[in-house]
């Protein structure tokens, strides 16, 4: 199984990082947000830098409409090549 990590487009409050991590690890995002908030206070905002870094590193989850549009374009190109 090839599991990839993405920022969540559905379960997001700011950038979808925590929601994406929760989906990847199959845990409740609310629990992960609470843990993150506690660690944020304890770490004296060092965790903020990690969150911002993950925001730029982790790609956003592609929507299902992106896949449909790509399939339509591919089929159109295939038809043009056949003719």
UniProtKB/TrEMBL annotation:
Residues 3-61 form the Phage shock protein PspC N-terminal domain. It is found in: Cell membrane. One of its GO terms (cellular component) is plasma membrane. InterPro entries: Phageshock_PspC_N, PspC. The keyword Ion transport does not apply. It is a single-pass membrane protein. The keyword Transmembrane applies. Keywords: Cell membrane, Membrane, Transmembrane, Transmembrane helix. It comes from the Bacteria. The chain crosses the membrane at residues 34-58. PANTHER family: PHAGE SHOCK PROTEIN C. This is Phage shock protein PspC N-terminal domain-containing protein.
């Amino acid at each position: 199984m090839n599991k990839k990590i993405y920022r969540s487009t559905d379960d997001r409050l700011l950038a979808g990082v925590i929601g994406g991590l929760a989906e990847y690890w199959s845990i409740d995002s609310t629990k992960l947000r609470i843990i993150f908030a506690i660690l944020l206070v304890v770490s004296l905002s060092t965790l903020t830098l990690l969150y911002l870094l993950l925001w730029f590193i982790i790609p956003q989850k592609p929507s299902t409409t992106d896949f449909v549009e790509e399939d339509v374009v591919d089929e159109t190109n295939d038809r043009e090549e056949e003719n």
